[in-house]
Amino acid sequence: MRAPELTSLSAQPPAADVQPDGRAGFGALRAELHARCADEDLAALWAGLKLGERKAIVASAGLHPRDAEAAIAALDRFERRAIRAAIGRMSRYAQALHAGLRGQRSAPHPSRALATNARRALDRGDIPGARHWLGLIERGEP
Fold this sequence. Notes:
mainly alpha
């Protein structure tokens, strides 16, 4: 009787990243999830960051400053998760700031209505009324 052959996993040919499966993109999603589990997305992002950006993320993650100079592969699973969480927090914070600024730009400045009233008063020849509205603008009153 012949013994069964043992092959190591590394001897097998690597599987293609995305298998065409005809299931509405399930193969692509599966490949993306495998890449995320292997921290490939984090490694690509980390490699593109400047040292100062890495230091800010490492500080936010509560890790040692020397970790900013390390490659993602050199960090353990806990450190990689902490970095991923810090990047997520910083990204959400930046998005909230951006949304807040967008909201401020869309609302007209409060002095716009006061200036409109001052202009109308000038058009009517009402100098005291125009001065009243201009005084409110100068004092910064709504």
